[in-house]
Write a structure and sequence with these properties.
The structure is a homodimer of 219-residue chains. With 219 residues, chain A is of the alpha+beta class. In chain A, 41% of the residues lie in helices and 24% in strands. In chain A, helix 5 runs antiparallel to helix 6. Chain A binds a DNA duplex (30 and 30 nucleotides) through helix 8.
Amino acid sequence: MKKYLNVLKGTALFRGIEEADFEPLLSCLQVRTVRYEKGQAVFSGGERIREFGVVLTGQVQVIQDDYYGNRSILANIGPGNLFGESFACAGADALPVGVTALDASELLFIDCGRLTAPCTRACDFHNRLIQNMLRIVSMKNIALTQKIEFTSRRTTREKLLAYLSAEARRAGGSRFSIPFNRQELADYLSVERSAMSAELGKLRDSGVLHFHKNEFELL
Amino acid sequence: MKKYLNVLKGTALFRGIEEADFEPLLSCLQVRTVRYEKGQAVFSGGERIREFGVVLTGQVQVIQDDYYGNRSILANIGPGNLFGESFACAGADALPVGVTALDASELLFIDCGRLTAPCTRACDFHNRLIQNMLRIVSMKNIALTQKIEFTSRRTTREKLLAYLSAEARRAGGSRFSIPFNRQELADYLSVERSAMSAELGKLRDSGVLHFHKNEFELL
DNA sequence: GCAAGTCAGTTGGAATTCCAACAAAAGAGG
DNA sequence: CCTCTTTTGTTGGAATTCCAACTGACTTGC
């Protein structure tokens, strides 16, 4: 467990917790670490989970199989990040997604009930952990809401403008860079890459936008 | 405060908490109730909030103004339901939405820091509250993720099938009823009502679906 | 019974997106 | 410098959606 302290220190879940407090905290939570081989199933759709996972090393993939067996990739989760936390904390009876190890991976599992249960010694780092957890889920919530804001627009042009203006506001100015390449941006906004590319060109031609690679400027 | 106990008893946030525990709990949380008149602003975009709200009576509306002042309604919140909880718990620096009272309303405000802070007496209902909060935010998370699942499909037909099959799975059978009328369903799926109506007709004609009003059956 | 209102379905042309294929530009590596 | 690969931009026809308007069924209130 010691060897993973460096990973845990950098995670949002353990943010603000002193290194010295890790040992008692982890034993208080009764965490367990498990090694998975590449391709091995971590969670399967339909089961009920009480624990969520933290990736220590490697990578896992969250997959959803829809009504006729078409699977779509919801996310790839790398070191320091969580998976299954919403389902574990919501107490959902049947997991609608599956999780598979993409590489050989070390995973940490934390029981959601134990996270929120009062610990026998009133450790204040335990409270910090709860705050962090609530913040993580809330931030994800905000990100999802914002994504819906963008993708619910009807045209590619409106989706782009909604996204770009939100990025501009976030950057606090008209110049900003985005964390996507064109294909990733198209996927994020649920549009065609080529149509989006064409629309970006039109926006530039009509003088509302400058861009070069990932650098944008709204005019 | 006493007169609102009936509302609070029925809320998800206070689920599982004994009526006798309400008084000490509410004073431990240092909640405050405020009356707003119709049309009055509760939260304004740009401010930083530490408290979230619970509607006791009346109704509030969550509004987002986009880059050129076009406002869109994100939600109407009625008695027993929360608003602003994601932003308060995430510690966002600038609220991207505004909240306005739709009717004369009594609102309860709870400080997010106080919610997660350990209380001096180790009240176990306090822990129950934290669990409830985490569950609420997580469930919202799941609902948002699912909505994205549907709306990110490219065609109206695929959006419909994704939604309807998820509803069928949730109902545990092929027959189910949906909580929307046509216009609401179209808004939820971000499609045109008339195009959706046409697509529903095609699906019925091609024999994959029966429906009558809100009653559906997948074949 | 009748008028007004709401809701669902239908239709046709305009607008937009999708798709596939190709071209151009930028890097990476030898 | 050359080749291979990745990324981005462009284009044209097919497919889909959007929009506006209309019809018909049903409800409500008088």
